[in-house]
UniProtKB/TrEMBL annotation:
Protein name (database record): Carbohydrate ABC transporter permease
Transmembrane segments: 9-30, 68-92, 104-125, 137-154, 193-215, 238-258
Compartmental location: Cell membrane
Entry GO terms, CC: plasma membrane
Major localisation: membrane
Keyword DNA-binding: no
Keyword Kinase (UniProt): no
One family name in Pfam for this protein: BPD_transp_1
Residues of the ABC transmembrane type-1 domain: 69-259
SUPFAM superfamilies, per the entry: MetI-like (SSF161098)
Biological process annotations from GO: transmembrane transport
Alphabetic keyword roster: Cell membrane, Membrane, Transmembrane, Transmembrane helix, Transport
Length: 274
């Protein structure tokens, strides 16, 4: 009886937490489909009196969001691929090879996580200006191909737990280190690769400051910049903002649901027992 009560209490707490976390998304959805005139009413109606689904179409057509969507997709796909693969390669080097200064370089890499982006923005702007990359998508894509400290650390910790027998057996069979990395370690790293890709996708997809600083050509704007255009000097179109916000959350939600199986199966021993 006590066990049943305990389980019921746990489920109640989890349901309340789920409602608390989902409430902002539900409120955004309800705001997106309500009449803009209702936003100023008091008391606030939680459920709109009428549902205006055409708000999504009107908000999308109010700005060239199709162009912004294409730009966001290009940046996100290329940056995520670059960050995931480069971080995996660097993590492989730190985890499976011994070289002089290995500990120093690893600590130096981790220390970069403590440097805020605000400190780097001016030097990076000057660097990209020297490369003639301003007003292009390159500043949002190319740096990702040099890896990220957090994702390197995440993958390195996983690779350190894999026995040396794996690569020693492969070397005996005539495999080189490139084949060992691509055919043995990358398949074992699927959970970490999926987790890193999803986490970095959320960062890139929602990035506002990067495109704002490096891009002034409206043809190169991404979705977050387009979203900010609904906010004027004196008025703000909250209905359109919420409509585009709801649409922007769909890709990240889809990516999470597609990759959750790999994330939940991220037990190291599961990849070693095979």
């Amino acid at each position: 009886m006590k066990t049943k009560i305990k389980k019921t209490g746990v489920y109640v707490v989890l349901i309340l937490l789920a409602v608390a976390f989902l409430f902002p998304l539900i409120w955004a959805l309800l705001t997106a489909v309500r009449n803009p005139a209702e936003l100023g009413q008091y008391p606030i109606r939680f459920i709109p009196s009428e549902f205006h689904l055409e708000n999504f179409k009107e908000a999308w057509n109010a700005q060239p969001f199709t162009r912004y969507l294409v730009n966001s997709l290009i940046v996100t796909v290329l940056a995520v691929i670059g960050m995931t693969l480069s971080s995996a390669l660097v993590a492989y080097g730190f985890a499976r090879f011994d070289f002089k200064g290995k500990g120093f370089f690893f600590i130096l890499m981790l220390s970069t996580m403590m440097i805020p982006w605000d400190v780097l923005v001016i030097p990076l702007y000057m660097e990209y200006n020297a490369f003639h990359w301003l007003d292009t998508l390159k500043p949002l894509i190319v740096p990702a191909w040099f890896g990220g400290a957090f994702y390197i650390f995440l993958m390195r910790q996983f690779l350190r737990g894999i026995p040396r027998d794996f690569e020693e057996s492969a070397i005996i069979d005539g495999a080189n280190y490139r084949q060992i990395f691509t055919r043995i370690f990358l398949p074992l790293m699927k959970p970490q690769l999926a987790l890193s890709a999803i986490m970095y996708m959320i960062v890139v997809w929602n990035d506002y400051l990067g495109p704002l600083v490096y891009i002034s050509d409206s043809e190169k704007f991404t979705l977050p910049i387009g979203l900010s255009l609904f906010k004027g000097a004196y008025t703000t179109d909250y209905t359109s903002i919420m409509a585009i916000t709801v649409l922007m959350t769909l890709p990240t939600m889809i990516a999470f649901f597609l990759g959750q199986k790999q994330i939940l199966n991220s037990n190291v021993s599961a990849g070693i027992k095979g």
